[in-house]
Amino acid sequence: MIVILLGPPGAGKGTQAAAISRRLGIPHVSTGDIFRANLSEGTPLGLEAKGYMAMGELVPDDLVVRLVADRLSRPDAAGGALLDGFPRTVGQAEALEDILASRGSKVDVCLLLDVPDADLLARLSGRRVCRRCGSGWHASFSPPPVDLKCPKCGGEIYQRDDDMEETVTSRLAVYRRQTRPLTDWYGAKGSLTVVHGTGTPQDVEKDIEKALSAGGAR
Ligand code: AMP
């Protein structure tokens, strides 16, 4: 089963993706996480993506598409995957169709996590995450421990460079211009399901479960 999790930066995709991937037993593939891991290891891929990420811009389609094609060809993705942060352009969505068609597969559902623009800036600029396990906090609504040590894994809790206010504004503009058109694209194909992302993470998770069950997922 191929599930796409679509939504603006700060909609809570990472948090929900972990829960969905556990529930459906498919790997969570986050292109942003893959780029960040490559960046911290200083790989050629990380170096190529670095400038785009720092500006809040999208990494070129061909690079991202190659990375996803490679990831989906691994054995653990034979039964499907949950794609988080990909596709982000219509060109990426078309390329994904080709990759999947070549394996006799297709996108089963595209879940749009919808959060009003007004909430996103506050969510993103206060966001703090664990460098190791990806768990999240918010500087005002759910502050991390003062020693900035993750209670779940002991990793360091930090603020992503691209969550600084200047970059957040440009990431939101990039989303509106390049990624939001995908909602119409998947809508026209009949595979779009909208879930409101404004409740607690637990409420949103329940709504996603309902949406997936209604769509025939386990
Ligand atoms: P994310 O964690 O999904 O917000 O991604 C962080 C950054 O990685 C983005 O702002 C982009 O620079 C880059 N990135 C992640 N996924 C993609 C994608 N599908 N297409 C282009 N750039 C991406």
Can you walk me through this structure?
- With 218 residues, the chain is an alpha/beta fold.
- It is 49% helix and 15% strand.
- A five-stranded parallel β-sheet has the order 2-3-1-4-8, with helices on both faces. The chain has a three-stranded antiparallel β-sheet with strand order 6-5-7.
- α1 packs across α9 (201-214) and α2 crosses α3 (44-55).
- The longest helix is centred in the C-terminal third of the chain and has 15 residues, at 165-179.
- The structure holds adenosine monophosphate (AMP).
- Adenosine monophosphate is lined by residues 9, 31-32, 35, 52-53, 56-59, 64, 85-86, 88, 92, 162, 171.
- Residues 9, 31-32, 35, 52-53, 56-59, 64, 85-86, 88, 92, 162, 171 line the site of adenosine monophosphate.
List the main descriptive attributes of the protein structure presented here:
binds adenosine monophosphate; alpha/beta; 3-stranded antiparallel sheet; single chain; Rossmann fold
What ions, cofactors and ligands are bound?
adenosine monophosphate
Query: Briefly, what CATH class?
Result: Alpha Beta
Number of domains: 1
Please describe the biggest sheet, giving its number of strands, its sense, and whether it closes into a barrel.
5 strands, parallel
Write the layout of secondary structure elements.
Blueprint: E1 2-6, H1 13-24, E2 28-30, H2 31-41, H3 44-55, H4 61-72, E3 81-84, H5 90-101, E4 109-114, H6 117-125, E5 127-130, E6 136-138, E7 157-158, H7 165-179, H8 181-189, E8 192-196, H9 201-214
Parallel strand pairs: 1-3, 1-4, 2-3, 4-8
Antiparallel strand pairs: 5-6, 5-7
Helix pairs in contact: 1-9, 2-3, 4-5, 6-7
The chain binds adenosine monophosphate.
